[in-house]
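Anyone opening a protein record will find just a pair of labelled lines. A complete record is shown below as an example.
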Amino acid sequence: MSVKEIFLDRKLIRLLRVRWTGQLTDGIFQSALASFLLFSPERQADAMSAALAFALVLVPYSIVGPFVGTILDRFSRQRALLIANLVRALTLLTIAILIFQGRTGVELTVFVLIAFGVNRLILAGLSAGLPLVVSREKLISANAYVVTGGSVWVILGGGIGLGIRNILDSQASADYADAVIISVAACGYLGAALFASLLKKNEIGPLPHELAKGSLTQGLKEMREGIRFLEEHADAARGIIAIAIQRGGLTALTLMTLVLERNFFNNPIDTEAGLAGVTFMIVTAAVGFVIGAIIAPIGVAMVGRHRWIRLAMIAASVSVISLAFTRSSLTLALTAFFTALCGQSVKVTNDALVQSKINDIYRGRVFAVYDVVVNFSIVSGALLAALLLPANGDTWTLPTVVGVGYLLTALTILRPSKFFIRSA
C-alpha cells in the first residue's frame, strides 16, 4: 500500500483524520506536561521523579485496560471515539484552569489520570477498527503508515508545543506558558471529535451481528477470554511479549536520556538547554521510527513476519549495548535512532500479525490484553531506570541490562521452534 493509495482510500483517510489529529494534539499536551513536571526551573529532575511521572500517566492505562475491550466489543466504536475526544478536551481545559490558578496538587493529578485513561480507549478503538477499513493483504503496510504517521504527528505536536512555550517564556512564567499550551491542545481534541462525528456509526465496528452481549462488569472475564484466544495463537502471544519487553527497555532508555540531558550533558540550571537536547533526541528517534516502518514491509516480504521480528530484536540489542561502552551526545543519538528503527519494525509487523489472527468479535478484548501487558512492561522499565540510574544518568549498567534483555528475548521467546509457527 503506497502513500498515494492511502490518500485515495476514503475509508482509511477518514479514520486517519481522527487518529492523526488526536496524536498531533497528544504531542502538544505531552510537551507541556513534560516541561511542567521535569523542566521547570523551580523543579529538580532525577531518575525517580521522571519514573514516577511515567508511572503516573500509565496507571490509568492499566486500570482502564481490562474494560476497554468490553466497551469496544459492545458499543459503536465511532460513538466511543466521539465521546472520548469530547471528554478529553473538557479534561484538558480543566487542567489548564488548575495550572492557571496554581492548584497543582491532587486535583491536577486526578485530571491528568483521566486524560490519559480516556486516551487509551481512543487508541485501542482506532487499532481495533483498522482491519475493517483495509484488506488483510494491505494490513502490514497500512499499520506501518498509520502507526508511524501517528508517531511523526506526536513529534510534530511536541515541536509545536515547545515553539509556543519559547514564544511565551519571555512574556510569562513557565507554568503559565504550559497552561496556554494545554488550552491549545484542548482545541485539538475538539477537532478530533469533529472528525470522529463524520464517521458512520458502524464503519469501524463492531458490526451488528458481532456485538458482544452482557454487561460492562464482564471486563475482567473477557480479559481472560482474550488471554485464552492468544494461548491458541502462540506466535501472536510471543510477539506481544516481545513488544512489551522492547517498549519497557525503550522507556528505560528514554528516562536515561532525560536525566543525561538535564543533569550531565548540560548545566542543570540551564533547563532550556536540557529541553532542547531532549527535543533533538526525540526528533532523531522519530526519524528512526519512520525508516523502521518503511523498511518493515520490505523485510517481511523478504524473510517473513516472524523472522523479521526476531532479526529486528537482535539488531536492537546491538544498538543498545553499544551505549554501554561510551555515553556522549553522538552515541546517544545513534542509539536513539537505531533502537527506534528496530522497535518500530517490530511493532508494525507484530500489530499486523496479531490483527490477522483475530476475528472482529475478539479484537477489542485481545487488544485490551495487549495494552495491559505493554503498559505493565513500560512501568517496569521506568522503575528499572529509577533503580539503576545515578543522579547524572551516566551509567553503563542500564543499557547493558536492556540490550541483553532484547537479545535474550530474540534467542528464547522468539526462537524459531516456538515462534515460527507458519510462514508469512
The CA atoms of residues 251 and 381 lie 6 Å apart. The two ends are 17 Å apart (CA to CA). The chain has a mean pLDDT of 84. The chain has one domain: 3-204+213-419.
